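pls design
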């Protein structure tokens, strides 16, 4: 699996709370081929307590009403910064996609730096 540098779900950003990226418009006829979102993250941590970050792909026909298409497992945050890659396979016939970053829990000062891309899965 190789992501496409032109199919960007999220440019590099740092977030401390739940966030939705701007939608990626694939224009024209929706793809019927399996896709994947690749999220590269680093500096995922919090100061104290328990938090988690979950990356999800949402899709839409109209760029207004989005629903969850697929999600990755939650990444537990602690005082030791984590880094890695999350791959989220999904299939959709919709035109618009966005990356949702959900930060949950009662810990203090959660943060994650990440970027995301879309790619075609091998058949």
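designed seq:
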């Amino acid at each position: 699996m190789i992501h496409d540098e032109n199919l960007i779900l999220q440019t590099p950003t740092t977030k401390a709370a739940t966030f939705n990226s701007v939608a990626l418009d694939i224009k024209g006829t929706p793809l019927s081929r399996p896709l994947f979102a690749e999220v590269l993250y680093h500096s995922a941590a919090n100061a104290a307590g328990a938090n988690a970050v979950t990356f999800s792909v949402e899709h839409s026909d109209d760029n207004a009403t989005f629903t969850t298409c697929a999600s990755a497992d939650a990444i537990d945050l602690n005082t030791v910064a984590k880094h890695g890659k999350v791959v989220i396979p999904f299939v959709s016939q919709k035109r618009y996609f966005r990356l949702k970053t959900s930060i949950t829990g009662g810990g203090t000062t959660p943060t994650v730096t990440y970027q995301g891309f879309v790619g075609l899965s091998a058949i």
